[in-house]
Amino acid sequence: MNVLDDLGFIFADALAEVISKVSGISLNNSVLEHDGAADEMIGVMNLNGKSGGTFFVSAREADMRTLCSHMIGVPLHEVTKEDIGDTLCEFVNMTAGNAKLRLSSASYSFMLTVPFIISGGNLAIHTKKKKHITARVLSDGKISLKVKFIHSAA
Predict the structure, then answer these.
(1) 54 CB-near residues (< 8 Å, 6+ apart)
(2) What is the pLDDT of residues 23-56, one digit of tens each?
(3) CB within 10 Å: which end of the chain, N or C, has fewer?
(4) Inter-axis angle of helices 61-72 and 3-23, to 10 degrees?
(5) CA 29 to CA 106: how far, in whole Å?
């Protein structure tokens, strides 16, 4: 397994597992072919170490509201923006921990940092050239989240 090429899959699969466990919603993991409409929320965590990078989860606020409602067990109309932000941060944190555990035997190690959220209208992720980006999408046809892992190209 070429770990660098499979990071998008590993992180997306870890996120799908986290979401399924905490919300009961199953999302399919596939290659992100086209990064269409810009999202409104991006959860970010830097992974520091010899082979670190940056891990992103981006979503529309409505999709995060639905996931948050299922996770905390309250009706959609009672979910606050703070609840949504906390949920996305927790998804990023739990996913990175899950992926770190999965990668422990592949000599790809990193230290986790504090996750944070960027929110607003039409958010997109742009990087300098010569960076390797692996991108996946998790979706059930209604809810969709994008997972990206960015690291320096070898």
Answers:
(1) 44, 45, 46, 47, 149, 150, 151
(2) 999 999 988 877 766 788 999 999 887 767 888 9
(3) C
(4) 50
(5) 21
Please report the domains of the chain, with CATH numbers, ordered by start residue.
3-152 (3.40.1550.10)
| pLDDT range class, residue 57, cuts 50, 70, 90 | very high
Establish how many alpha carbons lie within 13 A of residue 145's alpha carbon, considering only the half-sphere containing its beta carbon.
31
Q: Per-residue confidence at 153, pLDDT binned at 50, 70, 90?
A: low
Residues ≥6 apart with Cβ < 8 Å to 95: 11, 14, 15, 18, 55, 57
Residues in the chain: 154
Asked if residue 79 has pLDDT above 80, the reply is yes
Q: Left, alpha or beta for 93 (phi > 0: left; psi -120 to 50: alpha)? A: alpha
CA 42, chain centre distance (Å) = 8
Please tell me which residue, 58 or 133, carries the higher pLDDT value. 58
* pTM of this prediction exceeds 0.70: yes
